[in-house]
């Protein structure tokens, strides 16, 4: 009888264990929730010991089991969960695994690099391991790294606009798996264009706009040349002084308040031909990041923004050539391996040839520019890479042999990247960068040469303690040599004598640490601190003034005048003239409501120790950089920002909204009638004031489909205030807040791209901005028969509304051709409805009628452009 009962019980157990169920488990499923799934589909009941907490999450992997027998399900779960299941009759017993039963699978490091069809590293590609339901995103060098248990996995790489790539790998030790991904060109039927511009909801980084070269080359610009710098003017919070003007203004800041980096090295000028072209060659630029706020601690030295431009890495396997021929300039790029899989090079050059057409037209004027870019890379092994980036550019002007000018920049940076371990890597770099300006006026028989040169060293480390906690830290130093100018007579009868303006020297050093901490699945926090020091150094003689005031107020005429030196102090070479230091805290926080929306907030303090001396809204080539010192204090910024971010329809659409407030201490202001050219005592025309700006930014993007683009709008105010130093002094504009020259109340940009078919695509860009603040004459008085204008308060007026519409069409004759000679044409019309935007307004007297009149100066009307582009 006992044997019969045992046999029945055994058969009953077999029948129970043969029942099939469908369940899903993952890292977020509690044991109680798992029990409910089983008990709702079967007759099983669960029993467990006191050590088992049913509200705890015991599962380590995500899996869905469909119509699986209970015995097989229990076997599968026992391999991956951290508790032990066993079936006895219609009961499932649950107990803690013995120490020896805990999973002992060894973990290995899976690393690699993702390349696109041009053999360029892909930044932000998704690397996903299907079996583990987890993944990572590639870094700025296209690298990924993830810890996985040993086993067999399917790795999927995806990047919007490219085909997904999959590889099956067996992980038994540290593995390196590289991927090459191809563009997703759905040529038959509907053409789908996708840009990887969905908002990263969870990251703390805000106030950052990124543009790829694919987007930059689609934005129509004057002269038909793709221009990375002009493209950022379509982003919220970014403006400039108008057409054909150099520099750019971010959130109401001046052009000299922007830190411009090319592969990590600073550059001090950003344009060719007085602003018609930027110094960045679109062929070699890989992409750009514009930081407007929430700036990480690794950046410093400017108080408005950071424009981080990176150049492409040359192809490690094949030689390639591409270029373009335009109506104003042409360009050529060559790249290829120095040693396959180890070393690569990329060289690019541009040159304009407008001066040739002038000579053919018997025009003695000449205007041209050229530049060269280079980047070399060599991988010694998996842990050590050496790279060099360089830039050299020059502009040459010659106006009827009466005026000649050359100016340009040189930059070189050598970097060594070393990987200490899977968690720690470093980047050591040293660089040189200069900007020079030379002017010659033969009729006056003199030359003027000036320049700024800097030498720098950076050493940065990145440590990843875990996927939820990262530390970036480093040190850097920068030595400056400022040459405000040397005047040289060019003939014996010149009325000018040789004069060397006082050279200035300075040392800027800093250290920073930055923490990235994922506190919960929804809450992320980044916080850091930068400590900066600045030393103004000799050899230099500093003038002294009564009461220490280089600018004096004349109460009789109610004007500020240059003070008269009453002595001087000489500082020997390397002696400290002034010393400044500042703590610069940074913080950013993000809270994700779900996978589609989040709010973010940030604060950053920044210090700026060097300044451009220019009382124009747009920096001119002869603008002079000068260091902080006895009469010029460092600028200090406090910026606060918060915003709401959302993706719609799985990233097809995205919305970014931000509010910001900026406060800048020690902003340079100039007295009326200030003469800054070749002024050896510049402190005599400078007052220290303050500035503020605040506003709202909106950016709405359509990221996928045959029609893509974005709409950006900024509503903002930028003001400056320079009160009097005593109750008797009025300051500037009566000591009240007045509009800065960079104020644009409204700023709207609409950018669109339409892919008609594989051969034709069309692009458009509409810009509308409030007119630039200016100071108009509000009357005149007559003295000796001469009309002398009387001016209103500073920047009390505005230029007329600024707007234009630009369109372009791209024609690719053979879109399916992927080898050999490939080409496309770009046809563009800038300012299609011929708007005569005012660059300035002047008030004069008509020589014939004697009547007062206003004249508008416009730079561009409608400007056609065409370029032929090729690669092979």
TrEMBL record:
Pfam families: CarbopepD_reg_2, Plug. Gene3D superfamilies: Carboxypeptidase-like, regulatory domain (2.60.40.1120), TonB-dependent receptor, beta-barrel domain (2.40.170.20), TonB-dependent receptor, plug domain (2.170.130.10). It is found in: Cell outer membrane. The keyword Flavoprotein does not apply. Residues 201-301 form the TonB-dependent receptor plug domain. It is a multi-pass membrane protein. The keyword Disulfide bond does not apply. Keywords: Cell outer membrane, Membrane, Receptor, Signal, Transmembrane, Transmembrane beta strand, Transport. It comes from the Bacteria. This is TonB-dependent receptor. The lineage of its organism: Bacteria, Pseudomonadati, Bacteroidota, Flavobacteriia, Flavobacteriales.
